[in-house]
Specification:
Elements lengths: L1 E4 L4 H15 L2 E4 L17 E4 L6 H9 L4 E4 L9 H7 L2 E3 L6 H15 L2 H9 L17 E5 L3 H13 L2 E5 L5 H4 L3 E2 L2 H7 L2 E4 L13 H5 L5 E5 L8 H10 L2 E6 L21 H8 L3 E3 L8 H19 L7 E2 L4
Parallel strand pairs: 1-2, 1-3, 3-4, 4-5, 6-7, 6-9, 7-8, 9-10, 10-11, 11-12
Antiparallel strand pairs: 5-13
The structure holds 2-OXO-4-methylpentanoic acid (COI).
2-OXO-4-methylpentanoic acid binds next to loops.
């Protein structure tokens, strides 16, 4: 069987793709660029595609379908970048890839600590030999109440880590997990907004939570709240976030994701004028840390992403149950 890989990266995925394609007896086609209508023809003759988080809209799904593609496997947990309705309509299967939640959970804790301890400001000032104290005072984790929105694998791992710090933790999710109840109390969103010093987002993006964090929800939050997002940019309304930061209602933010990041991450665009004003504004603030969607990026995660993408195509080809199959929920 053959799999065509878009956004193929030699430096970190190459050896892993070779290892797993040999293990599963798969012939690979590769393209280092993201899939587009212009380069879709490269996938002709391949029934399986492996992609990352680059937009696969209805036109591109249709084009791949015309070329004979029967499955699109994204080497990512999130699949909000794929038009699932179009895929379902055309009978193109979609799969995602899971990886250890530790990568994003570790990074979340790092962003939390950096935000609570004002690390961006401290480092920027220290780099220009400003070793003064005013403005650098932080807070201590055990004194904080933290709200975790979304208790999937990553949210649950963050909660377990936070229990080691002795924080009071509130959690929100429609699906309640018993193991969360050991370390946190499930509450409604409004209770999180009203009581938490820091709120961290760990939900997949869907129609129901687009701009969950908006002007209204921010107004319900504690003054000086810290917002952490390692999930998806679209869950936070950037304009409302900027307004909250400018008014001082929001004390700090740690953002590994922002709205409209398609086309920016993971390219070297240093010589270009970028078309994302909100990103530029957010990263200019001393109390906002913006990183380019890197929380996932560990050796273990890349191995898992490539392995699960390859294996999921192999399972479909061999008519076996595929645990990574994504279904369109209408
Ligand atoms: C995911 O796996 O869903 C991620 O967010 C990481 C991806 C951008 C490579």
């Amino acid at each position: 069987m053959k799999v065509f890989v878009y956004s193929y990266r030699d430096f970190d995925e190459g050896e892993i793709f070779t290892r797993y394609s040999n293990e599963y007896g798969i012939e690979l086609g590769i393209c280092r660029d993201a899939p587009t209508l212009e380069n879709a023809y490269l996938a002709e003759g391949y029934e399986y595609l492996s992609i990352i988080t680059t937009e696969i809209d209805a036109d591109l799904v249709t084009r791949f379908h015309e070329l004979g593609v029967k499955m699109i496997s994204t080497r990512t947990v999130g699949y909000d970048h794929i038009d699932l309705h179009k895929a379902e309509e055309l009978g193109v299967q979609v799969g995602n890839a899971t990886y250890s939640p530790n990568c994003v959970a570790d990074y979340t804790i790092m962003l939390m600590l950096m935000s609570v301890r004002k690390m961006k400001r401290i480092m920027e000032r220290a780099n220009i030999n400003d070793f003064s104290l005013p403005g650098n005072q932080g807070r201590e984790m055990p004194n904080l109440t933290i709200g975790i929105i979304g208790t999937g694998k990553i949210g649950r791992t963050v909660i377990k880590y936070l229990s080691g710090f002795g924080c009071k933790v509130y959690a929100y999710d429609l699906f309640k997990h018993d193991d969360v109840k050991k370390y946190a109390e499930y509450v409604e969103l409004d209770t999180i907004y009203a009581n938490c010093d820091m709120i961290s987002i760990h939900m997949p993006l869907g129609d129901s939570n687009y701009h969950l964090i908006n002007q209204d929800s921010i107004a319900k939050m504690k003054d000086k709240v810290i917002i952490i997002n390692t999930a998806r940019g679209g869950i936070i309304d950037s304009a409302a976030l900027i307004e909250g930061l400018e008014s001082g209602k929001i004390g700090a933010a740690g953002l590994d994701v922002v709205e409209k990041e398609f086309g920016l991450y993971y390219y070297d665009l240093k010589s270009q004028v970028l078309d994302n004003r909100e990103l530029m504004i957010l990263r200019s603030y001393p109390n906002v840390i913006v990183t380019p969607h890197m929380a996932f990026y560990t050796d273990q995660a890349i191995d898992d992403m490539v392995h699960h993408s390859i294996k999921s195509c192999w399972l479909v080809e061999h008519g076996k149950e595929n645990p990574w199959q994504v279904r369109c929920s209408r």
